[in-house]
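Please go through the protein record below and explain what the tokens say about the fold. Record follows.
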Amino acid sequence: MVQDHGFYLDGKWVDPKGRKRFETSNPATGETLATFPLGTKDDVAAAAKAAKAAFDKWKKTPPPRRGELLLEAARIFRKRKEDLGRLVTAEMGKVIAEGLGDVQEAIDFFEYAAGEGRRMVGETVPSELPNKMCLTIRMPVGPVGLITPWNFPIAIPSWKSGAALIAGCPIVFKPSSLTPLCGAKFVEVLDESGFPPGVVNLLTGNGSVVGDGIVAHPSVRAVSFTGGIDTGKNVYEAAAKKMIKVGLELGGKNAILAMDDASLDLLMDGVMFGAFGTAGQRCTAASRLIVHAKVYDQVVDELVARAEKLRVGDPMNPKTDMGPVASADQEKKVLEYIHVGVKEGDELLAGGEKLTGGSYDKGFFIQPTIFKVDRTSRLATEEIFGPVLSVLKAKDYDDAVSIANSVKYGLSSSIYTNDLRLAFRAMNDLEAGITYVNAPTIGAEVQLPFGGIKETGPTDTREAGSTALEEFTYWKTVYVDYSGRLQKAQIDTQRIVGG
């Protein structure tokens, strides 16, 4: 049965009448799952107003109390993990194990963020004057806008909202129009957890209306966006005009470096998961495999054999290795890139076709695809965001690093080697926010910062980990003078005198 959903504003679910609606559907079956209203600028104004009205009370709520609500949300997520995981798979298309993992990440991060309510550490430093204390404290910036993608429809909203809420910031949340049902169910959990009215607000609709409206609204004092690089740059510019904080994660062209001493079986396991997990639709997906010349032919042969054994199909089936891509537009984009590779003369080693016949005709299924490419080809330099792996040959370690660093992105990176010296060199040499040794270019654990460099996004913000609060807080410096007299730093002639 198709569900009709509305917005969540000021603690209530509202379904505006007479509004144009859009559908969300299952990319494996074509089944319509739900409909949602298209938000307007007036809806953005209503959400921002509710968030602004809630801010003063929410920022004055003691952080440990905020943490209790996050822990309650984590408890509910854990209770509903199976249902929510299946929803992620139904609406986005990743295999069920990954759908459940998406929800587990929300559980993990909400539990972690709750603990920040009892940390929120600042500094206490000595003063140059007697009987004076100097310290720093974190302050919430105000209402914030959270704009999230479709590939991690529960996990990424949890990173953003968990950090914002524990910091004391009400949120205006816009999920992707490909996965609004996951966004709505996410907010249902927060509603049940007991967050006060106005602290959590949900809008759906077009990015050009709702997303841009959130960024531009004067009450919104920070924006966190995950998505495409062109849209991200527009968000960055609009936020700069308002002089507000902005957190961006804009993708990657991640490389796995395979050295000549790498353990082949371990490498193959990592490449298959890194390149074809989530059908390659991860910011951290292994889009490039850079192989030492000495083992290049052996690695390529094994790679093709492994790829041809991958089971593509129903993502609800636990035996399936890879599900569909997320939409017709995604399918079109990936197939166009495959065509570009063939046209440019890259050697197609495996896959390259849309899967058809039987249940495949109802969804957006593409074969796991592998190309031999030149380091300057488009497949080697542009983010594809699909199940397409480019394999490149490197003369040695230094050449492999040079190839890895030649792209405009810098999110995740990996090296497979049993040489401790090369592993430690790679930690310093690879231009990326994340480096793995003997593991694929997957994401980060919630207690560690996640983000990149170069055009992946600004280096001054990171999601998750101890730096997560940076997006949503500012530092206030506090001086307490208990000397009982006027003291003047730098010019007080009595400043070295005690008492």
The chain has 14 helices and 22 strands. The chain has a mean pLDDT of 96. The chain has two domains: 3-250+457-477, 254-437.
